[in-house]
Amino acid sequence: MKKTRLAQRVEMARAAMEFALVMGRNKLGQPTHIQVPGHAGKRYEQFIRRNDNRQSGLTVECQLNTGCGPIPCPGNNGHICYHSLSAVELAVKESGKKASWCQTREIADLRARMGGQVIPVQSWKGTGILYAVVEEA
Ligand SMILES: [Zn+2]
To answer: Would the pTM count as exceeding 0.85?
Structure first.
């Protein structure tokens, strides 16, 4: 699968977020399971896992709902797919905040000097990682 530019993926994620549905929440009311629409009527299930240590951030698992069982999203291996970005964007928006996305910790730390908290976002069992700088909207 072609790796799309981060800015492009964020744009696609924000468009998909408008049609995303929260399917499950944790005890704090934070979304843990979000369904995100993809191309050609496809549906992707997102499972957000928050680490107890906030510094280590969260992981997002993306599964394509095929109708005969889920298959891991190929876009979420090696980098973070826009479906997962969409789910995190929705969770951030619900908390009254907004996220800026950075490819590296260094850029995220620089960005956070202007305000915000750096949250690493990893793909589940994959090697993809991005850094969200989350601040008040
Ligand atoms: Zn995906």
So the answer is: yes
